[in-house]
Amino acid sequence: MTRSITINREELIQDIKIGLGKYKLYFAIFFSSLIMLVGYSQLNYKIDNEIVQLNQEKNYLIAENFKLKKDIGILSSPERLSQLAKGQQGMKPGDYKSGKFIENKP
After folding, report:
1. Is residue 91 a contact partner of residue 85, using CB atoms and an 8 Å limit?
2. Can you give the pLDDT at residue 2?
3. Residue 15 structural domain
4. Is residue 102 a part of any domain in this protein?
5. Which pTM was predicted?
6. What confidence score (pLDDT) does residue 62 get?
7. What is the total count of domains within the chain?
8. Per-residue H/E/C for the chain
């Protein structure tokens, strides 16, 4: 045999109010913890984005530094300097037999 239970609307509302009043502190703690967790997640997300951007910038600067070192190596090569001395300055190859060499002794 089944029993039917009828609950009056006012009684239900009153029971909910009593239940909520009883656990009000727990709800406050739960929601404040939830808010702090969301705030922490957003802060962590911003920091992670900044780290990614800084790593990208670092990688770009490392590549640029490597390229500049390579260019410096090309510009300061003895062949290039000799070519500039002969072409632009009109220098001739030196005669080592007629030159004087000074040894520098420490």
Report:
1. yes
2. 65
3. 10-85
4. no
5. 0.53
6. 98
7. 1
8. CCCCCCCCHHHHHHHHHHHHHHCHHHHHHHHHHHHHHHHHHHHHHHHHHHHHHHHHHHHHHHHHHHHHHHHHHHHCCHHHHHHHHHHCCCCCCCCCCCCCCCCCCC
